[in-house]
Amino acid sequence: MAALFLLVGRLTNIQTMLRNRHTNHTEVPEVVVLRLPIYVRVLNQLIDQGTDVISSHQLGELLQMTPAQIRKDLSYFGRFGKQGRGYNIEFLMEELRQILGIDQAWKACLVGVGRLGRAIINYPGFSPEGFEIVAAFDSDPAQSGTMLGNITVQEMSEVPDTIKERDISIGVVAVPSVEAQGVINILIEHGIKGILNYAPVAPQVPSHIIMRNIDPVLSLQSMTFYMKDLL
Amino acid sequence: MAALFLLVGRLTNIQTMLRNRHTNHTEVPEVVVLRLPIYVRVLNQLIDQGTDVISSHQLGELLQMTPAQIRKDLSYFGRFGKQGRGYNIEFLMEELRQILGIDQAWKACLVGVGRLGRAIINYPGFSPEGFEIVAAFDSDPAQSGTMLGNITVQEMSEVPDTIKERDISIGVVAVPSVEAQGVINILIEHGIKGILNYAPVAPQVPSHIIMRNIDPVLSLQSMTFYMKDLL
DNA sequence: GGTTGTGAATACATTCACAGCA
DNA sequence: TGCTGTGAATGTATTCACAACC
Prior knowledge:
By secondary structure, chain A is of the alpha/beta class. The first copy, chain A, contains 10 helices and 10 strands.
């Protein structure tokens, strides 16, 4: 509810306000938010292929989901389609990017520059999507001063100033499990709003902090449930 | 339904059959399966701390969820607790490991030995949990023969024989997006049952194949939805 | 004709609340 | 007393089905 109220407060033109009027009293389900980036991605691919209009039915085939679900999902945010035709891909994509907040750049810091942290900092997928890692920290002072690409590793004591000065809002955590909760507490204390956690634990965060866990082992462990009887 | 039927077919003693009798006619929700590995992980931590019994209420505090949900989740698989006391941690963990199929070792192959693939093969979190990458492939023949740790990179043409000979059931995909669907098709064609996909696309797979996507960018993009109005 | 957007209907997941037991 | 296991109740998400429109 709060998120939506702020959303409306942020809208810029009357057309958009009218389009979103009906959402004022309905919370957007989180599953819907989780699907929006998937829509953006497939729309991107369609643009590359030169397509310019698509129906919910066609989208559903591409994404293996029902057309009704796609239409319903989009309806939480506005009316983006044209009856009889479908959705203008470029327009829909831009709208979704704005809704998700990925029409702007986001700055992140990395904590933990071990093997995993180095892989993350070298991952080429973040910056094209507007996520830039602009600082790196490690609890081991011996790492301090090391260069990783164009980033200098800093000591944990520099976290507060760096977050403030560089306007960092996302913390990427790649430290050993036992250190994760402590590191996350520090990041939150100094104004980080979102955590991307690679440590294989489930840290506790206050409800106003958004956390996402990347955990391939958990994924595998839920996969084998369905595989174990097939062999 | 099929999965459960097979589950029952696999049970070894009458006690376990009776325990699971009530599940015969109820499909286990997928969300429940996704939570089981999280339970296993926290139980592991509790064992390390020397705890031996825990109540659903205490577990709920640790995992930030309601005791009722934990009890309900477990009830899909059996009766593991004792009234008035709670759950024996070691026993519950072993049961869950068996249910998930992670009481056995699983062999995986990696496709794509670029930066990401190398990071995956070096990730130390898989083998302690019983997931071992025993082969690696790359579509670039120039990579063939390269050693990564103790694994020799092979050509794609060797996929069929290697999967069969080494009894590999999981494919880890770390190739560029455009190649992902093709690679996944090949893996499935040669008997792979589960796919751990790191390519930022949503490949299509037949319903009997289990796929999990690891995609930090999608996670970030759904995170910013909740962050964009807080700044 | 084709397709959207959306209330209503259905299906699914979570939580409640309490009987039953240690 | 304290806790589990579970039907019933509630809350959410998905799907249906159709009026409105191009």
